[in-house]
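Q: Could you write out the predicted structure for this multi-component system? I'm mainly interested in how the pieces pack against one another.
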Amino acid sequence: DGGITQSPKYLFRKEGQNVTLSCEQNLNHDAMYWYRQDPGQGLRLIYYSQIVNDFQKGDIAEGYSVSREKKESFPLTVTSAQKNPTAFYLCASSPQGGLDTGELFFGEGSRLTVL
Amino acid sequence: SQQGEEDPQALSIQEGENATMNCSYKTSINNLQWYRQNSGRGLVHLILIRSNEREKHSGRLRVTLDTSKKSSSLLITASRAADTASYFCATVGGGSNYKLTFGKGTLLTVNP
């Protein structure tokens, strides 16, 4: 079945450690996104990529890094510079042309807890 | 910054009743979208309404858009316990058609 796969579903990390969240899609979508969700805060955009080898910062990019070496993959690294990394992370994709006429397709999320 | 703001923050109704959720936004938009999220899961797209549309239907869902008031409403008719979820509005606009800005959501509980 086509969709977006995020892994791991749950992740625990010690303070000061970097961690990488995986996001893979087989929808043949050009654009991919990372959102962060905190309780009562809705979703906030971290990074997005319109095409392979290109990505842009979203509203809360500090302390995060991404790469887009393949169309199918858009991993997110939460670095030790991110001061409050405990959150629910959601990866999404959209077809070519952006969101003027299309919608986001989401993965099931990765819950990161910093101990 | 958050563009959309949903109202109410939480809504509890009985099965069979209608549920209405409202969304307000601040700047001009290309379209407005509604998403649903079951607890601990990813979001699922429900409906998209363009800025030149006033009303749209999809099954038991009815969405309205009033660009003069910068507001939208989502009506779920004949609610079911399975409709229990958080509902988010999101807007596209502000010069980038790749940035979807979400509100904080309405938690809907449908009691059997």
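A: Regarding packing and overall arrangement: The first strand of chain B starts at residue 5 and ends at 7.
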